[in-house]
Every structure is written in structure tokens, then in C-alpha cells.
Amino acid sequence: MAVIRSVKQDIVRLFTEKGIQSACYEADLLLSFVLSLDRFFIHSHPEYQVSEEEAERIRSLSFARTDKRVPIQYLLGDQEFYGYRIQVGPGCLIPRPETELLVDKALEEFSSGRFLDWGTGSGAIAVALLNEIPDSRGIAVECSPLAISWAWRNIEQHDLFDRCLLLHNCDIHKIPVARESLELIISNPPYIITDAMPALMPEVSAHEPATSLDGGPRGTSCYPGLLSFAADRLCKGGTLLVEIGGEHQIDELQDISPPALDLATIIQDYSGISRIMMWRRV
Description:
CATH class of the largest domain: Alpha Beta
CATH topology of the largest domain: Rossmann fold
Helix content: 25-40%
Largest sheet: 7 strands, mixed
Low-confidence stretches: none
Structural class: alpha/beta
Number of strands: 11
Number of helices: 11
């Protein structure tokens, strides 16, 4: 039998050689996952013995991570988002830390009522808002059958189906929501420029769904529909919050914004990149 120390050293060496960032951290995650131990135990018990079966499973996952560049979140089956465990896997976008800023801003603007999460993917945003705001009801909309299956698992896992409608819809203009009936519309739509897609990390380009990433020639193909939908379905004083791809998209989105929407603020992410635009329905 091997011990945790030697197994971890082998993983870190492999990950480092293959250019995996945060090699030590990801090694801890794999060990915790396979051994059902927390990271504190792994660090404090380096002589803990690992069975041959466990070691083989760790090796298999390690090679999937390095040779196929499978995202670590897909291997582990979940990702933390806003303090909640979100199940993820092939077919859905992995929730990013910067999208938590979108939730932060939503919680400042929205305290009760109905919201719609367009392009819900794994359902991470809807799960966070419904858990954080007990006096709320949500509509989580997704066009991908694969992604919506992950959203279904997460909404069920968090026991939120009594307050959330999960809707499979590919045409935003046909979402069955009455005019001026929503207090909040929130979305992390595809916003990467098509020509930039090949330059993405292989974990992203080879595994995460292109439909959740590719925003067309300028990265803005989804926004006209979102803006016109929000102008019609938000109640007066309601909020539209969207994630964007950076400052280069701001002018275009301002130009196509309907008169019924007033641009309220633009928020930068942790790297100083313009990441969120917020409008209010006038």
C-alpha cells in the first residue's frame, strides 16, 4: 500500500509536468474526493494508507485530467458557487467566481417577488437566489437539453421545485411570462467572440458547451433579445442584470438598449474587467 504523501507527490509531479495550474490544490481535491477525507486530514496525516483500488482510481482520474484535459469539476462532479454545492458535468457550463458578483448585485436590488434566470445552465444562479431570498420565486430558462438536466438535478438537490419553474425554451420571445410581471431578470449569456474561441484553454474549448460560450462575431448576439424581453416583461422599477465580456461590448449594448431601460451601473470583476451591466425599467 502507498501512503497519502507519496500518492500526492506523484499527482503534483504529473500535474506540474503537464502544465496544470494549482497542481497542489487539485491534487488535494482528487485525494479528498476518492478517499472521502477532508483536506485538513490529508495534510495532517501524510502516512495514511491508500488502498490499491483507491490508488488506481486516483491514477485514472489524474490521467483524465492531464491527457484529456477534463475539467477538475467534471471529474469531481460538482463546483461550489456562492457557498452551495452545484452538480456539474458534460453539457453544462462550470460556474465561475466572477458570476458570484452577479448574484451579489442581485441581492442588493432584489428582496422578494419573481425573477427569471435566462440561460440557467447548471441552475447555479437560480439556486443561489432562491436559497438567499426565501420570499422569491424563480423561472430558470435553458435551451440545451443536456444543461437543463443538470439544472434539474441541482434544483431538486436543494429542494427548490416548489418555488422554481424550470423551462426548456430556445426562443426568448416565446417565454410564457406576462408583461411587466418580473422584478428581476438575470443572465450570464454567451459573450465570447467567435474568433476567440480557439484560444480558450483546452479544458474549456474541448469540454464545456460552445453554445454557452460563443456569443457570435462581436460576442453580443444574445443581448438584443434579452434587452427587448426585459423592456417588455420587467415591472416598472425592475432590474436587468447581465454578465458581459468586457469594456469593448459596453457601447454596443448601450446603443441597442430600448428606451424603457435605463442603464444604472457597470461593475468590474476581480481583475478590473467590466463584467456586469445593470438596467432599470423606467
